[in-house]
Amino acid sequence: MDLNILWFILIAVLFIGFFFLEGFDYGVGILLPFLGKNDNERRVLINTIGPVWDGNEVWLITAGGAIFAAFPNWYATLFSGFYLALFLILFALIIRGAAFEFRSSDRSPQWRNLWDWAIFLGSLLNAILWGVAVSDLLRGVPIDAQMQFAGNFFDLVPPYAILGGVSTCLLFTLHGALYLSLKTEGEMLQRVQNAAKKIGAVTVPVVVVFAVMTYFQTDLFKSIGAVIALLLCAVALLAANFMLRTGKSGKAFISSGLTLLFLTVSVFWGMFPRVMVSSLKPDWSLTIYNASSSPYTLKIMTIVALTLVPIVLAYQIWSYWVFRKRVTENDLHY
Fold first, then answer.
1. What are the tens digits of pLDDT across the range 217-227?
2. Residues 85-106: what's their mean pLDDT?
3. Distance from C-alpha of 220 to C-alpha of 226, rounded to nearest angstrom
4. At how many degrees (to 10) do helices 83-102 and 53-70 cross?
């Protein structure tokens, strides 16, 4: 294994961590206005992710930095071609982060309701747009011989990509509902479990349709490894729904997380060694070799990563352990 492959794997791991952790953050944000019937209940829902949501976003920042440093041509083509989509993602992250901070600065019901819907909008946009972006990477976008994006905005939103956005939105929402089933109790817990069952019933057929479209729209199924990962993804999703209906919330949440893990693995495995597929000509696709930094840069990055990443992981595991208990209205402070 050379350093190019190693950094491709490391970036895949960073996105796995991001989708697993930030996925339930988005899910909680999407469910917030519908499960929280009053201000106290919404505060309970927000407090389930309050101590960890900003730490979860570090995975995205780290992944973006790794792409910039390890594969600068990938970064340049991605951010120039997906400029509007990434701007919308950034906008959604900003209003979502501001909402978490500003919501409790005023006790006015109108003020808090405004920021609650801002959390919902920011979470919903991100959940959809990430699915659209990943679908575009799989299907391919117009990239010319100079590694430049040669299309327009409408090339990024075909029906396949839109369905991909709906699929990730449902997967994140289900993941968030299952997370809440571990963090709430009483009437709220019952409400969360009922919502999770309904969301799961919709998610399975939508994801199946998306998988069928993936077969016809991409070359993902040409990779045996990607197919195996997709099959494991399907098994995990069905297991999450089964565990939920049998009252095993913890196992259901783990299965939901495995669904996102195997889905991400299938995407990266199916693209390898490409990082962006050209729909104009396969030879113009960006790969881990024609889009990478120099071997010396990759070597220095590897040393730094092996030194710092374990520290970051240890801190995040510790923070989840500290805030592991269920959240109730008795825990609220004004």
1. 999 999 999 99
2. 88
3. 7
4. 150
Residue 91 has pLDDT above 60, yes or no: yes
In angstroms, what is the C-alpha Rg of the chain? 20
Label residue 214 by pLDDT band (50, 70, 90). Answer: very high
pLDDT of residue 1: 65
Which residues, at least 6 apart from 182, have a Cβ–Cβ distance to it below 8 Å? 249, 250, 253, 326
Give the long-range contacts of residues 198-203, CB within 8 A, separation 24 or more.
Answer: 199/170, 199/173, 199/174, 200/174, 200/240, 200/241, 200/244, 201/241, 202/170, 203/167, 203/170, 203/171, 203/173, 203/174, 203/237
The Cα-based distances of 249 to 36, 47, 193, 194, 205 in angstroms read: 20, 19, 9, 12, 21
Question: How many residues make up the chain in this entry?
Answer: 334
Distant-in-sequence, close-in-space partners of 111: CB < 8 Å, separation ≥ 6: 103, 105
pLDDT at residue 84 in the model: 85
Both structure tokens of 140 = 């391919």
Across the range 33-50, mean pLDDT stands at 89
Cβ pair 144, 282 in contact under 8 A: no
> What is the rounded CA–CA span in Å between residue 205 and residue 217?
18
